[in-house]
Structure formats: C-alpha cells, structure tokens
Amino acid sequence: MSVEIKISLNKGLYIKEPQDSKLGRKIIQYSIVMIEEFGFESFTFKKLAQKINSTEASIYRYFENKHLLLIYLVNWYWEWVSYLISINTLNIDDPRKKLKIIIHSFVSAFIENPNVAYVNESKLHNIVISEGVKAYRTKEVDKENSKGFFSGYKNLTNTVSQVISEINPNFKYPFALAANLFEMSNDHIYFANHLPSLTDISVQENDFNEVETMMNHFAEKLLSE
Question: 97 near 219, Cβ under 8 Å?
C-alpha cells in the first residue's frame, strides 16, 4: 500500500498550508503546470484561477503573491531531493558511494512519484532549471533569508558537504563543491537544451546520464587531490 508523502515547508511561505486541502493541492498542481508551460513572468493568479475554476481571492488565501508561491515550489523541490538522498543513502557507509548516490539523486529527482499526486516532479524539475534562481536572486534575498526561506537549500548543501568532508577531510571547499554540484546538475541540462556552446554534454529528453558522468568526473578529480 502506497503512503502519500507530505513535505513540511517554512510556514512564512504561505498563509494557509496548501497541501492540507483539495483546493490548495490544486493550486500547487496547476501552478507547476502553468509556470512550466508559460514561464514565471507570464504566470498570474488570475490565469491560475481561471484554470482551476476558482477565484483570485481564493488563491490569495493561500499565498500572498506569486513570488512566495515560486519560493514554495522551489523549496518543495529542495526538500524532495533531500528526502531522496536520505532514502537512497540509508545504510550506506562508504562516503564515495554516498556521493555517487547523491549525484544520481540530483539528476534523477525529476522522476514522477505516484505518492505525491499533486506534484509533477518532472515539470517542477523543469521549473527549478529555468526559473529556480528567481526565487533567491532578488533584492529581497537577505530579508527572506533571515526568515529561513532558503533553509531547505542550505540543509541540502550541508548534507552533501558533510559527505564530501568524509571523503577528503583536507578539502578546503566542501560547501562550495556541494552547492556547485547541485547547480551543475541543473545548469548543464539547461545549457545542453538551450545554450549548447556552454557545455560539453548533450541530453536526450530525460536521459541525463552524461550530466551525471560529468559531475562524478569533477567530484572525483577534485577530491583526489
């Protein structure tokens, strides 16, 4: 029997927890669909309300604005990746094997999970790749950071940095490498699809094997020094 997964997020991101109601889950589901299809700039609560046969006012009962909705969605993804890492590395003692599993989790988190029916992980992955930096590269980043809005990303990075330090305790930049591996997993998929001269790899639909191979290559070289 499958058990539905609910990921807990910072309460400051929402007015009413959307995962706790049918309408809220519908808001999450279709905001992902619409942002992935049309882009964040073109996405509005008015368009979302029309899509789900509701009202703008009802959406504003859950989220103050679309920026906080985007941060919510990106946070959900960060927590999802952290969940996959914790499950996939359970009972794994070898830190080098752990890092390989982590890298695989980075590039395979898009695989849809039927236990979260209202989140299309593949579409959300596309949003993180193309729109994710808009969640925190803003003028309000310091204020939002003080509220803990990016703790999911920092916790994820911390988890990975600990594994890196296990592999090579003398490596000077474990946090930088951890963050760069995560960003690399997204950036080079984007580059391969849209700016191919900025990368050496190619991707075919949802086949990201070359990305994973490249990331393992960089990690192994850096941590063997």
Answer: no
